[in-house]
Amino acid sequence: MSVSAAEAAEYHSKDFDWETLRQEIEKDPSLSYHLLPFVSPQPEQQVSKDPIKAWQSFHIQHSSGKFFKERRYLLKEFPELVSCGDGSKVLEVGCGNGSTALPILRGNDKIILYACDCSDETLQRAKEFVVASNVASVEHRFRPFYCDFATTGFPKWLACDYCRENFGQKDPNCISDVKEERTLETDSGSMEERSCCIGGVDFITLIFTLSAVPLQIMPTALRECFSVLKPGGMLLFRDYGLYDMTMLRFEPDQRVGFREYMRSDGTHSYFFCLDTVRNLFICAGFIELEIEYCCVKNLHKFIGQQLYLRIPTKYLIQVLDSF
């Protein structure tokens, strides 16, 4: 593990009590609009924006890499990524510029990391970002590919129909050699042509990705994640929690649903309470191992003021041993 003890020691998850925060927010009249039921606008008042194009534009705008920091807390929060066996396959969903992929690759040099995103431009930047890091044997272990998992699902080369339906009795011919090198351009195509798959994955990381998916699509997206996990596999989730400071900055006219908001650039965010997370994942077939708000206080100093950012919610779940 390459993350230093000093970096690991800086990680906190209980800087404040979420229940105290809830009471503070719900008693503040200026924030009451966040608590109100959402009334859908009339069809002629609705503004239609393509969420995929919105996120593509977002990542292009922030392509310098300064906006997203490497998520060094991940291995402290999810040590399973460090302790898993050689050749374990990890699927990073919504990889963005690689800020989640890089610490995973650093933390375990035996992991094979598949990373998907709905933007080819973003994937190329992620590949450049990871390769520039000089992580050991990264060219063999980092395999980015295009995928809009929430609408089209994962490609069959990741897990074929046979594997998805019968993970308990895999056909050895459906499992590829994890040491086989593939490039960004040929990864999915060559696998599809051979009509085989890699046999599913051992871990899925879903880090600040599900919140960008409209609430009505989330059940389908999570069932798709469940379908490509091996029996006993784990999904590691972290995302925006209810009453996060990001949520409280949205204005009333930016609400597009209950706890759902849209930024001016068309990107979307949902803010989860624990019950919503639990219900979504259990209905998709997962069993719960751990769920909690990670109440983290990040201090940023500005001239004349101090701004605190609070980022709640983590969830650790496991696919059932049999379907």
TrEMBL record:
UniProt-listed Enzyme Commission number(s): 2.1.1.-
InterPro entries: METTL2/6/8-like, SAM-dependent_MTases_sf
CDD domains hit by this protein: AdoMet_MTases
Pfam families: Methyltransf_23
Alphabetized Gene3D superfamilies for the sequence: Vaccinia Virus protein VP39
Membership in a protein family: Belongs to the methyltransferase superfamily. METL family.
Protein name: tRNA N(3)-methylcytidine methyltransferase
